[in-house]
User: What shape does this take?
Amino acid sequence: MYQYLVNSIDPYTMQILVNIGIGIILALGLNIITGLTGQLSLGHAAFMSVGAFAGALLTIKTGAPFYLTILLSGLITAAVAAAIGWPILRLTGDYLAICTLGFAEIVKVVFLNLEVTNKALGLTVPAPNTTLSMPVTVLIVVILVIIVSVFIENSRFGRALKAIRDDEIAAESMGINIARYKVQSFAVSAFMAGIGGCLYGHFLGYINPSDFGFLKSIDMLSMVVLGGLGSVPGVVFGASLLSAAPEFLRFMSQYRMLVYGALLVFLMVFRPNGLLGGIDFAALVLRKLGVKPRGAAHEKQGGH
Amino acid sequence: MFLQQLINGIALGSTYALIALGYTMVYGIISLINFAHGEIFMVGAFVGLLMVSYFKMNLFLAMACSMAFCMVLGVVIEFIAYRPLRKSSRLSALISAIGVSIFLSSLAMMVFGANAKGFPDSAFPSHQIHIGDADISTLQLLIISVSALLMLSLEFIVQKTKIGKAMRATSEDYNTAALMGINVNFVISFTFALGSALAAAGGVLVGVLFNSVSFNMGLMAGLKAFAAAVLGGIGSIPGAMLGGLLLGVAEVFGVAVGYSSYRDAIAFAILVLVLLVRPAGLLGQKIQKKV
Amino acid sequence: MALLKLDNTTIRFGGLVAVNGVNLEVEEGEILALIGPNGAGKSTIFNLITGIYPPSEGDISFKGKSIAGLSPYIIAGRGIGRTFQNIRLFGQQTVLDNVLIGAHTRGNWNLSGALLQFLPAVRKEEGRLLELAIRCLTKVDLAHKAYELACNLPYGEQRRLEIARALAIEPALILLDEPAAGMNPQEKQTLLEMVRTIRNDGVTVFLVEHDMKFVMGLSDRVAVLDYGSKIADGRPEEVRANPAVIEAYLGKGAAH
Assistant: This one.
């Protein structure tokens, strides 16, 4: 039935939809480490790159079933993230951010020089070995990633991440092992970036290390912040909007990136917490259920 | 050979240092990674190019014009894109900075096209000087001396003038500085102006050095300069100078010993390694946990 | 055997000796107050006990085992809960979530639990943690505000929420850093009774406080710190009469 639905949509629209889907996967992944754990990553494109090349090589060299390939590329990416996460996640704030950025540049340059990634020529990715078509696969993964994100947010694990984001010292005093949770959430985040990259590579049919540079990391970050950091509906919305924006702006052809840049500034200045940020969906639901609305008093914290 | 590479490295490194200073000053005062700073460097290079090739100015005059133009640009950017976000989360300001960066580089591509432009040969008739077995061009000496002069002037402004004192106070404690009657808005504008002027000078010098000015030159230069600022200890002015020189020299030597295809990774590899050993950078201050 | 034992505990920040060779024992089941002038090193002692700073010299043992130099999360896991002088709540999260974070060490399911949260075992644990959190909130009379954002609570309630969060660790020892600061007399009286109940429920209480009336009315024992050294230790009325304390801390007029 899905297949029928897929066939009834014209290829151009379908391409936009798949791009949106991949954007959502990537943005929700980044949201785990930056939105929930509060650690700014400026190098997430590197994980996308690792996933894309791992997936492409698995398909080329082994011809493994596509779903296994997706899973494996996610796991490989998560392992890479955990390995580099141990040393760098003890850095705080912007030092961590610049380290992730530096790491991403190193990955890009290394891939540009490796035989196995075909150096600067990039890899042609053969069509995936699967019965379901690409759009359906992406849709399934998007739904899974949304479910996992919501699950994580509302769990003991997610509460620990949010505690670290809000106050590391208080979190540690509550018995939360900060280093361990940072690395774990980094790995989960990279896992999603990895499967996003794998899907991206197989969908496009061609990948080049240069595609996963700083600007790609920034794209992902913009999706997360624009929609509303830490809010799953916000991130989904932001990712959809920004993945589709270049298409909607296509009519302005050469002015496209100009408008895109100005739009980012404009949106941030007028909605600094993101388009859907600051809206507490759980509270809205509670209010609908008749739970007493929260007080408006805004007491300032402080001591002496 | 060694001396020659060292001079090459110092020349490249001093341009990184010029850009890094802008990052570090802005960060010191409002804790913002000003990602648009690399684009100001690019705009500076284009303005310098315009002045030399269309208005037939001499290089120094062109550089002065470019610095003046970018000072205004830096102040305007701060006013439009960062000031409204000063009370918001730092990530919002960061995204805004990225927006400015995308805007400026695409504007430059529209106006000047996608191909790199070069300075006319007459811009700075360079010739070689032989010192021992090293061939050193007068252009490199020019770059090193202009950078040194600018950095000395900056050091003078920051350490010896009233506005410099206000800058140091604001960077130490924003709120207290405001309470002490310092016009913080003016200090921030002034910091952006200073940083942008240095980046513009760096842009003109790099444009002449590589004889190439393009709309996307700001990205990698900006990232490396930012790396230099962090390497030295972000917020520290001497740190930015040291970091820039170190990265420039390391890059040139890395290329010289045969890692030219890894050129762009060298700076970041050094950065990551140094941060693992010294988490606050070379000259950065260790932050005491406050409970 | 004392529950907590500070053995010649010392910490230096650069040249400053903030805590100087302090020997102190906290007995199981008592309410011990630590008093002293501003800057005497009281909060620093709490930060030493909870592992935020490792001691430069000396030892700290809890339940007979040394905890000096361990990470704060391990020490919390051993059963020491704390509040902070300058309130450190997770302001943008609900009151309930704050206490659930406090209950972190009482659960085991991690990432796998998050992904498999439909399993009965995970749901059972989550239910148990929720029950614990509500119980802690009830102890400080905040259960009716469970779904409000922590930053929207009035100041006195924020202090009580910090206590609830620390209780969710189910600690053997709770450290309260100026729990009554900024409260009005009525609120202080309520708090005093709450702390007594906490102790009667089997939690040993060690607090730092400035309000003498509060300290004298609540504590079984009082220790006095001045310039990083302990100058007195005893029952409230003894300490109140100790000339060294009067001179160092209470001042001539405050001795009644």
Confidence is low (pLDDT under 50) at residues 292-304 of chain A. The longest helix of chain A spans residues 178-204. Chain A touches chain B through 47 residues (CB under 8 Å). Strands of chain A lie at 123-124, 206-207.
